[in-house]
C-alpha cells in the first residue's frame, strides 16, 4: 500500500512536467501497482514499479533517519520486498539505498549546524545521526560539503564563537 501511495504522490507532484508518454507510463505503472496491491503481491521484476518503490523507501527512510536500525534490510522488510529488489529500484533512479540514507543524515546534520545558539556539538550530531564516531562524521561531512562541520557552522552565520567539537 505504501508503494501505491508513494507512486500516486509522485505522479501528482510531477504531472504538469510529464510528456504524453510520461503520463501514459505513470498511468500504466499505477494500474500495475494497484493490481499488485489488490492481489497482495509485488512483481519485483516489474520495471515500471521501481520508481514508486524507491520513492516509498525514501519516504519511509526520511521518517526514520535518526533510528539506529535504519538500513536497506529494515526498509525492505517494511515494504515487503527483498533487499535486492530494493537495491534494483534505487539503481533505476541512480543511487544506492545506503548512499541515500547517508546523504539525508548529512543534510539533516548540516541543517542542525545552522540552528543558532544551543545547537548540538559535532559529537552529538555524529551520535544522533548514527555515524560510528565524530571522525567518521567529520570526514563524510567534508567529503559532501567541502568543509568540516565546524568550518561550515562558522561560515554560515554571525557570532558563531562557541566550540562545536566537545
From TrEMBL:
It comes from the Bacteria. GO terms for molecular function: DNA-binding transcription factor activity; sequence-specific DNA binding. The keyword Transcription applies. Keywords: DNA-binding, Transcription, Transcription regulation. Residues 55-155 form the HTH araC/xylS-type domain. SMART domains: HTH_ARAC (SM00342). The keyword NAD does not apply. InterPro entries: Homeodomain-like_sf, HTH_AraC, HTH_AraC-typ_CS, PchR_regulatory_protein, Tscrpt_reg_AraC-type_HTH. PANTHER family: REGULATORY PROTEIN PCHR (PTHR47893). This is Helix-turn-helix domain-containing protein. It comes from Streptomyces liliifuscus. The lineage of its organism: Bacteria, Bacillati, Actinomycetota, Actinomycetes, Kitasatosporales.
Amino acid at each position: 500500500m505504501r508503494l501505491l501511495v508513494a507512486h500516486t504522490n509522485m505522479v501528482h507532484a510531477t504531472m504538469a512536467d510529464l510528456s504524453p508518454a510520461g503520463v501514459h507510463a505513470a498511468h500504466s505503472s499505477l494500474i500495475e501497482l494497484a493490481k499488485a496491491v489488490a492481489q497482495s503481491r509485488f512483481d519485483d521484476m516489474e520495471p515500471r514499479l521501481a520508481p514508486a518503490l524507491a520513492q516509498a523507501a525514501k519516504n519511509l527512510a526520511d521518517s526514520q533517519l535518526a533510528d539506529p536500525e535504519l538500513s536497506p534490510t529494515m526498509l525492505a522488510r517494511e515494504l515487503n520486498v527483498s533487499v535486492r529488489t530494493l537495491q534494483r529500484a534505487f539503481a533505476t533512479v541512480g543511487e544506492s539505498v545506503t548512499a541515500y540514507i547517508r546523504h539525508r543524515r548529512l543534510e539533516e546534520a548540516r541543517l542542525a549546524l545552522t540552528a543558532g545558539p544551543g545547537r548540538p556539538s559535532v559529537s552529538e550530531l555524529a551520535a544522533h545521526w548514527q555515524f560510528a564516531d565524530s571522525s567518521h562524521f567529520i570526514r563524510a561531512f567534508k567529503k559532501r560539503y567541502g568543509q568540516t562541520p565546524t568550518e561550515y557552522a562558522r561560515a554560515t552565520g554571525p557570532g558563531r564563537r562557541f566550540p562545536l567539537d566537545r
